[in-house]
Write a sequence for this structure.
């Protein structure tokens, strides 16, 4: 290896990009004491993930209460709030006066007096919602990805720094970071169990996720919002909205070093109806390269009837490992398999967030989660354009996907899907 470049292990030991809120192996934090102040929770975006996150937040601490809910659509609140009420029981304290709908619902939830807000609306709105929460001094739990484009990522990086200055919790939904088996195996990787990493094989291959066909009476905006994961501007495409989990684990393995550049391909083989499938791709294949020569090979698809694979395999100078599923290391000197306790990572992340807020040292992984999101966006960019693009050029991209204003009556035809060699990097 070229001596001019530090190895991954040296990089990690130097502490670069790491802080108390982004430790590679977070401590298992106990729940707060029963007699602590009641923390009021607000939920923005009451879809499946939002409902789950709210239930986990109510279970994370003895003295919390869900006091406000906001969503773009009233019918979604009616559908899911009853389930949350049953799960939360006395901790569910939402009233008609603290139930809000519309594009400004997030402001009303945050302004209702909550201490912690759960932000699980489509990713397009994440930077704007986070900005308002930080401005108002409210702790945040926000789902991944943090944005759909580079301007949004840059904004979240700045917000993470502001949240740290204001001592606000700022936790992303990269749930695998809170899974005990993965915390242990990645700690061993950082300690050199594989030697120097040479290659990574990352997959997120499965069938279609839910899609909604346009119904009569829906305008363009409502049709896209109801079917948000099919539209680039709302979801960032599947590599950013879904497969980013595996890309985040590649970043974890690399000690948060950022790739130098990437190249790749992708397209639409089965997503043939724009009303149902919008303008996203149904498969991606990308190659990332880091400064020390390590390469990460990422493959993802959403195609029914195909072989499923959700894995991260690592290949180093001293061994190989399955970091996602089997949690094993096969080394030249010895082999190891995780046999310790397992946990519900979704619950653990909320346990740790609320305990950190109680301790006065709130968890903050905002910068790391923003960079992981940007690495996924880089993969989308190289697949869309067919070009090799550097990480820094991608991060500095001026392409903004989110409309400046919203009107239920505005014309918003679905753009044509990107075409490699024709679509340009902006």
């Amino acid at each position: 290896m070229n001596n001019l470049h530090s190895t991954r292990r040296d990089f990690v030991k130097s502490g670069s990009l790491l802080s108390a809120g982004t430790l590679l192996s977070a401590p298992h934090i106990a729940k707060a004491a029963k007699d602590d102040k009641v923390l009021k929770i607000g939920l923005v975006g009451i879809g499946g993930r939002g409902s789950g996150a709210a239930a986990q937040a109510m279970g994370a601490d003895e003295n919390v209460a869900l006091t406000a809910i906001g969503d773009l659509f009233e019918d979604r609140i009616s559908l899911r709030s009853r389930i949350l009420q049953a799960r939360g029981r006395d901790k569910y304290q939402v009233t008609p006066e603290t139930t809000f709908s519309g594009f400004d619902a997030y402001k009303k939830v945050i302004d209702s007096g909550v201490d912690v807000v759960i932000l699980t609306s489509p990713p397009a709105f994440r930077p704007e919602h986070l900005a308002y929460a930080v401005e108002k001094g409210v702790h945040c739990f926000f789902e991944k990805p943090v944005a759909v484009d580079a301007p949004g990522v840059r904004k979240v990086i700045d917000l993470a720094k502001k949240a740290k200055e204001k001592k606000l919790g700022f936790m992303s939904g990269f749930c695998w970071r809170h899974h005990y088996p993965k915390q242990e195996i990645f700690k061993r990787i950082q300690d050199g169990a594989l030697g120097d990493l040479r290659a990574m094989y990352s997959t997120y291959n499965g069938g279609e996720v839910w899609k909604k066909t346009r119904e009569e009476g829906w305008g363009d905006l409502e049709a896209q919002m109801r079917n948000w994961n099919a539209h680039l501007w709302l979801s960032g495409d599947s590599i950013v909205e879904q497969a980013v989990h595996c890309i985040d684990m590649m970043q974890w393995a690399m000690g948060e070093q950022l790739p130098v550049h990437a190249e790749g391909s992708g397209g639409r083989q089965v997503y043939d109806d724009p009303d149902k499938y919008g303008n996203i791709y149904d498969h991606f294949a990308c190659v990332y390269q880091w400064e020390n020569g390590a390469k990460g090979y990422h493959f993802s698809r959403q195609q029914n009837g195909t072989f499923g694979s959700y894995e991260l395999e690592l290949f180093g100078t001293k061994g190989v490992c399955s970091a996602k599923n089997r949690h094993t290391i096969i080394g030249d000197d010895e082999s190891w398999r995780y046999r310790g306790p397992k946990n519900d990572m979704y619950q653990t992340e909320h346990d740790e967030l609320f305990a950190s807020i109680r301790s006065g040292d709130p968890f903050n992984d905002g910068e790391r989660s923003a960079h992981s999101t940007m690495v996924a966006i880089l993969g989308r960019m190289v697949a869309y354009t067919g070009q090799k693009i550097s990480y820094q050029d991608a991060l500095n991209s001026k392409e903004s996907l989110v409309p400046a204003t919203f009107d239920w009556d505005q014309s918003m035809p679905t753009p044509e899907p990107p075409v490699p060699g024709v679509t340009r990097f902006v």
DSSP finds 15 helices and 15 strands in the chain. Residues 366-385 form the longest helix (20 residues).
